[in-house]
Specification:
The complex is a heterodimer. By secondary structure, chain A is of the alpha+beta class. Chain A has a single domain, classed as Lipocalin (Beta Barrel), CATH 2.40.128.520. Chain A has one helix and eight strands, in the order αββββββββ. The longest helix of chain A has 23 residues. Chain A is elongated, with a radius of gyration of 19 Å. By secondary structure, chain B is mostly beta strands. Chain B has a single domain, classed as Porin, CATH 2.40.160.40. Classes of the chains: A alpha+beta, B mainly beta.
Chain lengths: 150, 368
């Protein structure tokens, strides 16, 4: 009887631990913003989630004819960093109930960084809301999960 | 004994298992990443769709909140007596004045209600105040006293507006705008009845072929020339491949050429039509309402610059051409009539203002 109780408790502990892990890791993957101009790989690094650009629809700058760089960054020292591989989502923490918060999103089009919250609408859809100060002053973009073409 | 050893082993393995998970999520030693694996991907959800964005590259920032001040150079005005005048009549002025100061506060706010890929809905409110100051030069027995009324009460507009952007797939969209404005010489202690609200709106169908071009055609009901009009509209927002030049056009309401210096400053050159129909309460009675049909064409240069974060400033310097300051009698139940460009309804007053320079400065909280 004691053995069975201990087994059950251990099984419950493992199940809860792994479920929490799998719930938070649903954010991990390759995602495409609504404009289709880029693909972002979201990965987990030490309990936080980060997203980097891994594909660009127009990877070459039509003005300079070289791979696009972060030319609009307010920090001049960052303006030669290639956009491919650029980490545009940073420091997201899983809050439960399909939400990741406390992070920021960077827009290389204008060099602005916004506060951001991410919600998992379903396994293949994210609501990414960038905002200015309060969430009401923001915009939601819907990102779709990508996978290898069948 | 063996069973106890089993459990002890299991307990020891638990933290190791957790640690193993954590080590697996740490990035490997940095190396040249192969991005080619991200080329041939498709939506995991086959029903997923793409939608066109309401913006194109390098458009001037959308303003959430704007706080501004508008000032006009001194000018002269001539106001006719009250009567019934054809548009090409030339009645002798009953009062003339020098307007030394025409200035006032301009506030607006636009807040997204719904902001998604497939639907954007925004609500806004605005308040514009115009204070007049100056000196009456001449006034005869037929004068309506409009100059004195403007000096003592000024004019103001308070309104609400809504904008809906509905993408029709990746390349096409519908844009719907609507507004209701209350304009007149009212004060907040002597407010104006809401039956004098004036309604305007526009519906545009458009296409967004790529990230640097957005165009559309549609129809508008507008007070931008001071009185009610129905006009076709053309939308043409474009950015050059070099990202330095562009246009922002919503014809005939406004049209600008844009020079983008960098992500934090730009210059617009063009014009905007402004107008409203202002009720003058002391020249109205139980039967009819007198409304000034104020319409202005403002040619200008506008410099916009980021001050810090999401705070931008805008400085306009331009020339104000007076399109109309005539007045109409309207039924006092708030009804409107349509004269357009070809109607022959009589004017209650025919008024002229000379033209001059203006300056407008604003501080704006802009949208992501």
């Amino acid at each position: 009887m004691k053995k069975h109780t201990l087994l059950t408790l251990l099984a419950l502990f493992f199940a809860t631990f792994l479920t929490a892990q799998s719930e938070s890791d649903k954010l991990v993957g390759i995602w495409e913003p609504s404009n289709g101009k880029a693909r972002v790989k979201i990965e987990k690094i030490a309990d936080k989630y980060y997203g980097k650009i891994v594909w660009l629809r127009e990877p070459i700058d039509p003005v300079t004819n070289v791979p696009k760089v972060d030319k609009n960054n307010p920090d001049e020292s960052m303006r030669t960093v290639p956009l491919k591989g650029y980490r545009m989502l940073k420091d997201f923490v899983f809050k439960g109930s399909g939400e990741w918060a406390d992070g920021t999103i960077y827009d290389p089009e204008n060099g602005s960084t916004y506060s951001c919250v991410i919600k998992l609408k379903d396994d293949n859809t994210l609501d990414i809301r960038g905002y200015v100060g309060v969430k009401a002053l923001g915009r939601t973009d819907v990102w779709k999960r990508l996978e290898a073409k069948k | 004994m063996k069973k106890i050893q089993h459990w002890l082993l299991l307990l020891c393995l638990l933290p190791l298992a957790a640690a193993a998970q954590q080590r697996d999520t740490l990035p490997p030693t940095p190396a040249e990443e192969d991005f080619s694996e991200y080329e041939n991907l498709g939506f995991a959800d086959e029903a997923a769709k793409r939608y066109c964005s309401p913006k194109i590259l390098d458009l001037s920032p959308t303003r959430f909140v704007s706080l501004g001040w508008d000032w006009q150079q001194p000018y002269q005005a001539e106001f006719s007596p009250l009567g019934a005048f054809a548009g090409d009549d030339s009645p002798a002025p009953a009062e003339t004045a020098d307007f030394q100061a025409t200035q006032g506060l301009r506030l607006s706010a636009n807040i997204p209600v719904i902001s998604r890929n497939s639907f954007v809905w925004q609500m806004g409110a605005n308040f514009w105040n115009i204070n007049y100051n100056g000196k009456i030069q001449t006034e005869n027995q037929n004068a309506a006293g409009l100059t004195n009324r403007l000096f003592t009460r000024g004019l103001r507009t308070a309104g609400i507006n809504t904008t809906i952007f509905k993408p029709l797939g990746e390349k096409q969209f519908l844009l719907l705008q609507g507004a209701a404005d209350l304009s007149g010489d009212y004060t907040f202690s002597e407010f104006q009845s809401l039956r004098y609200l004036r309604y305007s709106g526009a519906l545009i169908w458009g296409k967004r072929p790529h990230d640097r071009l957005q165009w559309g055609v549609g129809f508008a009901r507008t007070y931008r020339v001071g009185e009610l009009n129905y006009l076709p509209v053309v939308l043409y927002n474009w950015t050059a491949p070099n990202r330095k030049w562009g246009t922002e056009i919503l014809f005939p309401a406004r049209a600008h050429v844009r020079r983008t210096f960098n992500a934090r400053s730009l210059l617009l050159a063009g014009y905007e039509l402004e107008g409203q129909s202002y009720r003058i309460s002391n020249l109205s009675d139980a039967e009819q309402s007198l409304e000034i049909r104020r319409g202005e064409l403002r040619g200008r240069l506008e410099y916009q610059r980021q001050l810090g974060g999401f705070i931008w400033m805008a400085l306009q310097v331009g020339y104000r051409y007076n399109y109309s300051f005539n007045a109409d009698y309207l039924p006092n139940d708030g009804q409107e009539f349509f004269r357009g460009f070809f109607g022959d309804q009589r004017y209650a007053m025919l008024n002229t203002l000379t033209n001059g320079l203006y300056v407008n400065i604003s501080v704006n909280l802009v949208s992501p």
